[in-house]
Specification:
The structure holds two protein chains of two kinds.
Chain A (H helix, E strand, L loop, with lengths): L1 H4 E10 L10 E9 L3 E5 L6 H8 L7 E6 L2 E2 L5 H7 E4 L11 H7 L13 H14 L14 H14 L4 E5 L7 H18 L2 E5 L3 H7 L2 E6 L2 E6 L1 H4 L2 H8 L3 E5 L6 E5 L6
Chain B lengths: L1 H18 L8 H8 L5 H36 L11 H14 L4 H24 L7 H24 L3 H11 L8 H20 L1 H7 L3 H6 L4 H23 L5 H13 L3 H25 L8 H20 L1
Helix pairs in contact in B: 1-13, 3-8, 3-11, 3-12, 3-13, 4-5, 4-6, 4-11, 5-6, 5-11, 8-11, 8-13, 9-13, 12-13, 12-14, 13-14
The chains are: A alpha/beta, B mainly alpha.
């Protein structure tokens, strides 16, 4: 029965770059994300988070193990069909070309269009809706090159929403943003989950943002799962100290009653 | 649509001007009399045997080179790319010179050696740069530069080993030469580059998506590796067909896509047809200038494309930044 409710699942995932010795970037990674779940992947730099997202998005093929989407193996999807179900917001957003905000958001419609990407009425409706939802309608004619980091992030999120996926994958969408924009992006994702039942899988560096928004978290260390579960269960001081090799202080968030962590500076140890 | 219409009008005018310019005494009035069918044997021969193939060869060559530049700039996401940067022009030049030295006819002999040369360099560049099965931008350009340097050395070597009579042919051809086009060669050129135009226009939206980066394009359902390969092969095919017919014509592939990118933005569905029509007009006008400026004989058209292209390019670049 569980596969009926599974949005995306990984089973025994292993990945290694060819010609990079025998060291695996990821090994023995298994988890199951339910439909409508907010799932956050945490871990230090180089722990394999980005690689995991690329495997889930179908951009890379695992060396062994499987990814399944809605209970069906990702390899059995056509590229176009996969793209209708899964949207991906990469960590590094390109900006060295001139394109209007509206045209960039329209690119998210490609999986629903023919080879030349000619616009239909439903494409326009979807793009207008995505821009309104992310609050970028007022600068839809601006060039993406002229946008700030926070604006650009919302434009790429709007393109992913216009794709009308059931699963949204985001690789560190908040790491280049100020706190206000971070919360804005997280709130956007939370409302996509609540209002549209979308499944959100996100890589984050900010443990506290993860604890505030995630239903479940996955903590990676050196390509392996270190802990997994609800933030209250999986995010303990012991876990974080072992994973990040740095002392932490823990308390509770006063409003949400979820764990909150602060790294301890050298001078206080 | 308006832009494409205006460009088509420009091309029609350029072709008209090109057909009525030349060494043989034939003014515009006589040109129209000939076209309208008031036949005069001499004028008839000049128009249909000499000028017609020459002007239309220029049109197809200009279209192929500027579209080639557009494709390379999109794939490499580097505004300075053109067929020359990847070593495709250089490779087909080496192949073509070997063909000329071996005494082959231009088509199919030299055409085949040129295409073999360009495909060999392309394969070499791709092999050098795709260690992880990914076309990394920096590696692709670096590999292209290295292969190009090798090709230049090979051309110099071949020229230094050549006796005088053939040297003149090769020299002229290296500077870009449209003077030896005839009807048969024009038809072969047109029929080899037209399918490439169609393929590239069909893939123009994919090129838009590939601008967003490999990961984003893949997540939108685009097979980046396959599309890149198809685009590179189609481009090097049409470039080598052009190179072996017209020699090395630089800057057409750099200037024309740049101008249109500045005016029209970055939608390749508009840019690709604009480069085809605009590049055709540009080379026809350059060739006309090459025949018209000197009082005796003519200068190689590659000299004109460079002399117009380089300053224009610098002005555009300065205005942009």
């Amino acid at each position: 029965m569980t596969h009926l409710h599974s949005a995306v699942a990984a089973k025994g995932l292993r990945y290694s770059y060819r010609g990079n010795g025998t060291k695996d970037v990821l090994s023995d990674v298994s988890f199951d994300v339910m439909k409508g779940e907010f799932f956050v992947v945490l871990g230090p730099n180089g722990s394999g988070k980005s690689t995991l997202m690329r495997l889930l998005a179908g951009i890379e093929i695992p060396s062994s193990g499987t990814v399944s989407l809605g209970g069906k193996h990702l390899q059995h999807y056509s590229r176009q069909n996969r793209a209708r179900h899964t949207a991906f917001v990469p960590q590094i957003l390109p900006a060295e070309f001139s394109m209007t905000v509206r045209d960039l958001v329209m690119s998210g419609r490609a999986p629903h269009q023919g080879i030349l990407g000619l616009e239909q009425n439903d494409d326009v409706t979807s793009v207008e809706g995505a821009m309104a939802f992310t609050g970028i309608s007022e600068f839809s004619d601006r060039d993406v090159q002229s946008l700030s980091g926070g604006e650009r992030q919302r434009v790429f999120i709007a393109a992913a929403i216009a794709q009308e996926p059931s699963l949204m994958l985001l690789d560190e969408p908040t790491s280049a943003l100020d706190p206000a924009h971070q919360i804005r992006v997280m709130d956007l994702m939370d409302s996509l989950k609540r209002e549209r039942g979308m499944t959100i899988v996100m890589v984050l560096h900010d443990i506290n943002l993860a604890a505030m928004y995630a239903d479940n978290v996955l903590v990676l260390k050196q390509g392996r799962i270190f802990s997994q579960g609800t933030p209250s269960m999986a995010l303990t001081r012991e876990t974080l100290e072992a994973v990040y090799e740095c002392p932490f202080l823990a308390d509770l968030h006063p409003l949400l009653n979820v764990p909150r962590f602060s790294p301890v500076p050298q001078k206080c140890r | 649509m308006v832009v494409i219409g205006l460009l088509s009008l420009l091309l029609t005018m350029a072709v008209g001007l090109g057909l009525s310019t030349g060494a043989g005494q034939m003014d515009v009035a006589e040109f129209f009399r000939t076209v309208m069918g008031e036949r005069e044997a001499m004028a008839d021969a000049i128009l249909y045997r000499i000028r017609f193939p020459r002007v239309f060869t220029a049109a197809f060559a200009g279209a192929a080179l500027s579209l080639g530049g557009l494709v390379f700039q999109a794939i490499l996401r580097n505004p300075l790319s053109e067929p020359y940067i990847l070593g495709v022009s250089g490779g087909s030049a080496v192949g073509a010179i070997l063909g000329i030295l071996a005494g082959f006819s231009r088509f199919p002999g030299v055409g085949l050696t040129a295409f073999t040369g360009s495909m060999a360099t392309l394969a070499l560049v791709v092999a050098l740069s795709s260690g992880r099965g990914v076309f990394t931008k920096e590696f692709l350009i670096l590999a292209g530069v290295m292969v190009n340097a090798f090709c230049s050395a090979s051309i110099m070597f071949l020229m230094s080993m050549t006796q005088d009579s053939k040297l003149h042919t090769i020299m002229f051809w290296l500077m870009g030469d449209l003077s030896s086009s005839d009807m048969g060669q024009f038809i072969i050129l047109a029929s080899s580059v037209t399918p490439c135009f169609v393929i590239i226009v069909l893939l123009s939206h994919r090129m838009n998506l590939m601008l967003l980066g490999r990961d984003k394009a893949e997540s939108l359902g685009v097979n980046v590796k396959k599309n890149t390969l198809v685009l590179l092969i189609a481009t090097s095919f049409m470039v080598s067909a052009t190179v072996c017919q017209c020699g090395l014509l630089g800057f057409v592939g750099l200037v024309i896509p740049h101008i249109f990118r500045l005016i029209l933005g970055s939608d390749h569905r508009v840019l690709a047809p604009a480069c085809i029509i605009g590049g055709a007009s540009y080379l026809v006008l350059c060739d006309m200038t090459a025949r018209w400026i000197p009082s005796q004989g003519e200068i190689p058209v590659g000299v004109v494309t460079a002399m117009i292209g380089v300053p224009l390019f610098i002005i555009l670049l300065r205005r942009e930044t």
